[in-house]
Copine-8
Amino acid sequence: MFALEKPSGQKPGTFGNMASVGDFNVLSSSIPATKVELSVSCRNLLDRDTFSKSDPICVLYTQAIGNKEWREFGRTEVIDNTLNPDFVRKFIMDYFFEERENLRFDFYDVDSKSPNLSKHDFLGQMFCTLGEIVGSQGSRLEKSIIGIPGKKCGTVIVTAEELSCCRDSVLMQFCANKLDKKDFFGKSDPFLVFHRSNEDGSFTICHKTEVVKNTLNPVWQAFKISVRALCNGDYDRTIKVEVYDWDRDGSHDFIGEFTTSYRELSRGQSQFNVYEVINPKKKGKKKKYINSGTVTLLSFLIETEVSFLDYIKGGTQINFTVAIDFTASNGNPSQPTSLHYMNPYQLNAYGMALKAVGEIIQDYDSDKMFPALGFGARLPPDGRVSHEFALNGNPQNPYCHGIDGVMEAYYRSLKCVQLYGPTNFAPVINHVARYASSVKDGSQYFVLLIITDGVISDMAQTKESIVNASKLPMSVIIVGVGPAEFDAMEELDGDVVRISSRGKFAERDIVQFVPFRDYIDRSGNHVLSMARLAKDVLAEIPEQFLSYMRVRGIKPSPAPPPYTPPIHVLQTQI
């Protein structure tokens, strides 16, 4: 069960898929009590396909704090041909016990490769809160799926499990011998399904291998799985492995099963890791039944996952650059309707976003000196248009001290430049990329924060800049201010479809987009939750940072030894 108090012994800085700013003690009041992993299964879904069963996917939405707008959190994989899916892909969420986290699970029958959900058949939805799942008996919530009037849409089962802080992964490979033949015309098409046991004796699916076609002696590819997913860090917990024969129509034939544990598997390739595959039904019927084949562990390799914090402790520097949109689409700064309105009594939209995000960011930047750029304005004295000018007016040294220094330079610029256009992102991205390309040894990582009203003019060039920058130690955070539709920004974010330019895909996802309006109250004057804004702005940075280090094979430097003050010997006079 989940502890409803914040554990004091929690390891700081262990980043999962979603990183919480609490890991850095920036906002100590909002450290999540725990991280939970949600597993989703459905029973008796609607059948929307004429000649086969539905191909379901589950999409999870969370609710924004201010305007209660639903925002997509993530998607499971698609499972073909089934009305009773057990999804393998999990949702990992921070569980703040003091906050009500509304959730919505939507189900679709996927008909094509399009990521656009409106192109697929809606199968219904379920609403609940994270607390409802965690608080259910065994943290297992079963609810009816609703949303299609007059139809029974089936049920959904969501299970929550608190995640331990185990950071090891294992690379394993299996083969099998003399499996039962299940197909009439050919041999079997076997695959393995791994389940970890839960505290109540039930099982949760945690991995599926690929299918090896037409053989009774398959060798599966090696696969990597976190120890947390395999056994939640409990080395003696039962792991059940089922062997199936794949069928195109989704009705896979059960060949048999065996059980093991992490501790047993960790012995590696040995006589202890050859398992008899048993089919209980056959065993009960046939006296001479021995087994339905054997499965052998071929290799077992433990890898300790390094975290973002390991690199920071080892001395990697994070360098932040700020770029502000000075284009005419923001409105005349002397008018109250402008996003750049210079109100003597309160911050404008840019000022609020800059202060809110900047105050979070400056905790990660060691020297607190930020290059601050503007783009899309006409500069004095000759009125030339610039897409990368220094806010402090010094192109040789565009650095400002702290966020207060950036704010000061921003307001000074507003008084002396003319808002113009077009809105070109590529020059400021290329500006930071020039610096990032000169330091590729892992000692520095660059983050560009662009604050914009979202009306972009150089989409093709920006995509090309991002694809090129994806090879460099850098990330781009885009904060959208104002009421515009941010479709172009969502496209640059690349969470649903990886960004590409001229047929070349980005090596990794380096853009995170956040609409600022989701975090402010109706009056537009107050940030509702700095903690949530912090989390969502920085959520993808650690993983983007780690993906660069992993691809380049860069390991963190060892942390310097803790400082011990010299010991002064006090001489006592006798």
The first strand starts at residue 34 and ends at 43. Confidence is low (pLDDT under 50) at residues 1-33. The two ends are 63 Å apart (CA to CA).
